Request: fold
Amino acid sequence: MIRLLDQLPHDDWPFMNRSFARALGVRQSSQDEAGAILAEEVYLGTSWIPAPGASSALARLVVHGFGAAVVSNTVHGDLAQLLSRTKMCSVGGDLVHVAAIIDSRVVGVEKPDPRPFQLALDALGESPANCVHVGDSLHGDVVGAIGVGMTAIHIDPQNLCGDHTHEHSPSLNDFVSELVHKS
Reply:
């Protein structure tokens, strides 16, 4: 679905919602209704869960001395709470420590604008040349990270991205395993 969104000239959420419903096998006559339910329950809701292996990958990254921050576009503004509830990470507390959780709804600007990335860099106390942004969206993550001068790693599990101007990895877990092995 992210690949489809990246291919659109502008965000078309009703189209995305219908496409999501179609991908799930919903018959065409019910795709508008099912798409609206998916939007409410998935995109606009707080039922989010981390990708398989993402929690352990983030923990390994931090244990090996790498700093981390989260930069995400949301519509609900509850990213910090979701990350805490799913035991992924937090800025403080007993979970995996990240320097910042930059939620577009909270800061008032969305990726690919460079400002959310700059907020993460400021929290990490690092320059763009010393940081890597890992994300699944060509438009929001890759374009945004490159726009602020960071290296971008595009999570592309099915190897569908034909753009070879940036690096790819099938998952955050695979990227962290490779990074940790190199260090």
Summary: Residues 2-43 form one domain. Residues 145 and 152 are 6 Å apart (CA to CA). The beta strands are 70-72, 101-103, 132-135, 151-155, 167-169. The mean pLDDT is 90.
